[in-house]
Amino acid sequence: MKKTLYMMRHGQTLFNVRRKVQGWCDSPLTDLGIRQAQVAGKYFREQGIQFTDAYSSTSERACDTLELITSIPYKRNKGLKEWNFGTFEAESEDLNPPLPYKDFFVQYGGEDELELRERVADTVADIMKHAIGNNILVVSHGASCRQFMRAWEHTSDIEQKQRLRNCCILKFEYEHDTFKLVEVINHNFEEE
């Protein structure tokens, strides 16, 4: 059965505004982040998209975003969490090395880029295999979404070089254990 995955990043948080590294640590949605999630929810309703299954990272910012988008019951999944940045968590983003990070954070108790990619790809594949319906919402994080895209870039004609802004929506088709990115909805929610 063909299924559709809508994978999205959470709304803007306090740490996003303060330019703090935010992986496994957490901070609340800002007023703008709440509005971004509400706009994303409105987009889904206007497109007639009704979710049959919903999943969120265990981080509060992702759960709160999902709850603003849909009222259906959802499952929290640790495999959808953001990159673990080790002792860089909650520090200034100015301390980050240049991209790509690769295995930089491992020496600081964090996660390797390929470990993150595999964790998120395996988690989402498992979700899709067990999802009962055919329209699945997954709310996760910027680097997690980007790494999932990279895991499946060989099946897609879409190249997304731009930053995945808060509440960016990635639409994937899923069939025969394969994901294909078919659309990137990277609205400028700040203007809503």
Structure notes:
By secondary structure, the protein is α/β, with parallel strands linked by helices. It has one domain (3-191): Phosphoglycerate mutase-like (Rossmann fold). It is 31% helix and 18% strand. It starts with a strand and ends in a 7-residue tail after the last strand. Its EC number is 5.4.2.12. One of its GO terms (molecular function) is phosphoglycerate mutase activity. It is an enzyme of class 5 (isomerase). Keywords: Isomerase.
Class by alpha and beta content: alpha/beta
Q: Quote the distance from N terminus to C terminus.
A: 36 Å
CATH superfamily: Phosphoglycerate mutase-like
Assembly form of the protein: single chain
Give the overall pLDDT as a whole number: 95
Quick one: biggest sheet? 6 strands, mixed
Strand content: 15-25%
